Amino acid sequence: MATATATKTRAQWKAVLQEAQAAGQKAAMAAKPTPMIVYEAQGLSDIPKPGGKHWVVPGGVCGFAWVTIRPATGGFVKLLKELGIGWKGYYGGWCVPMHPQVEGPLVQSLEIKRAYAGAYARVLREAGIKCDVETRLD
Fold first, then answer.
1. What does the H/E/C string look like for the chain?
2. Integer distance in angstroms from the first to the last C-alpha of the chain?
3. Distance of CA 26 to CAs 51, 52, 73, 81, 98, Å?
4. More confident residue, 72 or 6
5. Chain mean pLDDT for the chain
6. Are 129 and 5 in contact (CB under 8 A)?
7. Which pLDDT does position 15 carry in this prediction?
8. What gap in Å lies between CA 71 and CA 131, rounded to an integer?
9. 102 has pLDDT over 80
């Protein structure tokens, strides 16, 4: 593991943040989500309506991804708070949302956000920060 978290300066933490964001963006751009097809159903069933409409969602299933840092202490979390990045986790820790820029300002693809979060978390771990990737379908 890299340098202990207590020994980094604010400038070094900013560099870690920028590296994590860049790694996440690169992973998001390289992600190849599995497209999803949504069919008009017969009533409330999961059976496609004959002759009904259908839509292709190129980004696949929609969802959210974030990185949770535990414990929510130290210079990096302090920097995130000062920058207004993230929120206090319901089950503890500090949660950092993933916002990749690949399909415009709002990416809905869970797979793209998961790729971003995984790369972002790898950079944090290399910097000595304990964190986990979490996701949720929308």
1. CCCCHHHCCHHHHHHHHHHHHHHHHHHHHHCCCCCEEEECECCCCCCECCCCCEEEECCCCEEEEEEEECCCCCHHHHHHHHHCCCEECCCCCEEEECCCCCCCCCCCEHHHHHHHHHHHHHHHHHCCCCEEEEEEEC
2. 35
3. 41, 38, 28, 24, 13
4. 72
5. 90
6. yes
7. 98
8. 9
9. no
Name residue 32's amino acid.
K
Domain boundaries, the chain: 9-31+61-137
Q: Could you tell me the pTM of the whole model? A: 0.85
Residue bearing the bigger pLDDT, 102 or 108: 108
Q: Confidence class of residue 43 from pLDDT cuts 50, 70 and 90?
A: confident
Structure tokens at 110: 């869970």
45-58 pLDDT per residue, tens = 889 999 999 999 88
